Amino acid sequence: MRVKKMSALALIVAAAGLSLTACTSSAGSSASANTSASTSASTAASSSTGASSSTTPGTSTGGQGSTSGSSSSGSTGSTGSSKGSGSAAQAKSSTSGARCKVPHLAFSATASGTEDEIVVNMKNTGSSKCSMHGFPGVQLVGPDGLGDAGPDAARADATASTVTVGSGEETRFLLHFSPDTSGSGKTYTRLLVTPPNERVGEIVNLNDLTITVAAASGTVPDVVVDPVGYHVGSGK
To answer: Hey, what long-range contacts does 101-109 have (CB within 8 A, 24 or more apart)?
Structure first.
């Protein structure tokens, strides 16, 4: 009977021990899990904070530095280029002036001193300087007006340059022609002259000069014009 009681008591103590152990183990596991989770969360937060504090400012600073540098460099370069272009444009504008237009030009034709060649003068009657670049348009005109127009002048094989004409000054160009030798050519007493880059022309009287070219044009142009800029001066 005593052995059985001891066994029962032992069983009760053992059961209590197992229960306590289970509770302790569960509590320990829970605490351990909580501690582990808290530690993990803390570590993650610390890692996140560390990453945020070490990466973001660095990237932002680097980005700002890069952006600032790029922006500063680009802005400076762009500003410098813009200022340079503006200065160049202003210098060019102040040097060459606006484009010469028909309302501020006086036209005349004179002999060049060379056979079959005429000088056409264009005087700047405006109050400020102007510029021209290129070939003028020239068409022969008969005594009956534009209805009696002849051939257009072909361009010479020459390089044009920009010509600046001050107020009261003039520039010139040469007109070359092949005279008619058949006796059946057409005589022209005027020219329709259009300055370079303009759409409006002006009738120029040849006065005592005349141009007589073949009525039917051949393969070689009967009239050839040089670019503007034969001479620039007061014309006196």
So the answer is: 101/130, 101/195, 101/198, 101/200, 102/194, 102/195, 102/198, 102/200, 102/201, 102/202, 104/130, 105/195, 105/202, 106/170, 107/193, 107/202, 107/204, 108/204, 109/191, 109/204, 109/205, 109/206, 109/207, 109/209
Cα 202 from Cα 107, distance rounded (Å):
8
Q: Classify strands 186-188 and 211-213 as parallel, antiparallel or unpaired.
A: antiparallel
pTM of the model: 0.59
The segments of the chain whose pLDDT lies below 70 read: 1-96, 216-219, 235-236
pLDDT number for residue 29: 45
Classify residue 140 by burial, with Cβ atoms within 10 Å: 0-12, 13-18, 19+: buried
pLDDT in tens, 142-174: 988 888 888 899 999 999 999 999 999 999 999
Alpha carbons 118 and 174: distance in angstroms, whole number = 6
Structure confidence by residue, pLDDT tens digits, 74-104: 334 434 444 444 444 444 444 568 999 999 9
Distance set, CA 75 to CA 70, 100, 170, 200 (Å) = 8, 37, 44, 44
170: left (phi over 0), alpha (psi -120 to 50) or beta: beta
Q: How many Å apart are CA 74 and CA 29, to the nearest integer?
A: 62
The span from the CA of 147 to the CA of 140, in Å, is 11
